[in-house]
Design a protein that fits this description.
Distance between the termini: 34 Å
Shape: globular
Helix content: 55-70%
Number of domains: 2
Largest sheet: none
Length: 334
């Protein structure tokens, strides 16, 4: 009787407290109020970080060949090769960042840790272009002394710290910004669509500032200032992001989407010889709402990819392998 009363009071209490309907929580995993968290106020901090990050990244990448040839005294071929390698690593690292965020740290913590690495990389890059013993001596009319091994190593370590930080930012920032709007609320759902428009505006703003203002400063004022400005802007944006911590809505890390897809195929292959009704009776498929492991929306069964339906059929041997149940039994939503 007490359980029934508690279950009836919970939705009423959530309504009184105006708790979000999409399962958002605070950092400790507790439900959050729609009135006190998320929305445009929280997303504004995230957009500011994106503007700063894009300005910093494009401020470096758009003029990197020039820096490598004029300052690091590399040939055009070597400089182009190093830039392409750096950009290739930058395009691959977001896969690692997404996996870490989805499976272990969550989006907020991944953003924080990657921001620290990002700012440190920018700071070291600024030192590399400003401090005399870290910067290669300029060429004179007859001789180019070239950079020392330490100067080259320090520069490239700094450069790859930047892409390591960018690898954590890229898959998390936009998704974390979207998390600040409750899909269960019609008004916030509408705001969420507008958020993506402002997000794209932020990306373009950072890009324009980078290829115009920063590139001009780098070539006409100095590389130290040209790298120092995005360092300061990124540090300020990160500080503002931390100031909004109490207002953010979070999604608890679960499992990497790639892992969940593989689990479905493994479970279906293990049960290749299990007989099923044709068409399968939906009640026989594993789709209990309380066993969806944090999934907020239950997807209905369809007739597509029916060969994977066997992954959702519970058999007696599943109970004997509880430690590896995720690789033996999957939900319809999964």
């Amino acid at each position: 009787m007490e359980e029934t009363s508690s279950s009836c009071e919970s939705p009423l209490l959530d309504k009184i407290l105006n708790v979000t309907e999409d399962g958002s929580t605070d950092l400790k995993g507790k439900p959050v109020s729609r009135l006190l968290t998320g929305g445009w106020t929280a997303s504004l901090f995230i957009i500011i970080v994106e503007i700063a990050e894009r300005m910093a990244f494009y401020g470096i990448s758009s003029n990197l060949v020039t820096y490598l040839t004029n300052v690091m005294q590399q040939s055009t071929v070597t400089a182009a090769k190093n830039v392409n390698l750096w950009l290739g690593v930058a395009s691959m690292l977001p896969l690692l960042g997404a996996f870490v965020a989805d499976s272990f740290l969550g989006r907020y913590r991944t953003i924080v840790f990657s921001s620290v690495v990002y700012v440190m990389g920018l700071f070291c890059l600024t030192l590399s272009a400003s401090v005399k013993f870290l910067r290669p001596p300029p060429c004179n009319e007859t001789f180019c002394p070239g950079p020392s091994a330490f100067q080259v190593e320090f520069f490239f370590i700094s450069l790859y710290m930047v892409v390591l930080g960018e690898g954590g930012h890229k898959p998390c920032l936009q998704a974390f910004g979207a998390d600040q709007f409750d899909d269960g609320d019609p008004t916030e759902r509408k705001y969420k669509s507008s958020f993506f428009n402002w997000w794209y505006f932020g990306i373009c703003s950072g890009l324009v500032l980078a290829v115009s203002v920063l590139v001009y400063i780098q070539e006409n004022v100095g590389w130290g200032l040209g790298f120092g400005i995005p360092t300061m802007v990124m540090a300020i944006a990160f500080s503002l992001f931390l100031c909004g911590t109490s207002m953010y809505r979070h999604r608890l890390p679960t499992t990497s989407p790639v892992t969940r897809i593989v689990q479905v195929f493994v479970a279906a292959i293990r049960k290749w010889n299990v007989s099923m009704t044709t068409p399968p009776v939906e009640q026989n498929l594993y789709a209990s709402h309380e066993l969806l492991k944090g999934e907020m929306r239950k997807l209905m069964h369809t007739n597509q990819f029916r060969f994977l339906d066997k992954a959702t059929v519970a058999i007696d041997s599943d109970a004997e392998h509880k430690t590896e149940i995720d690789w033996r039994l999957c939900t319809v939503t999964q």
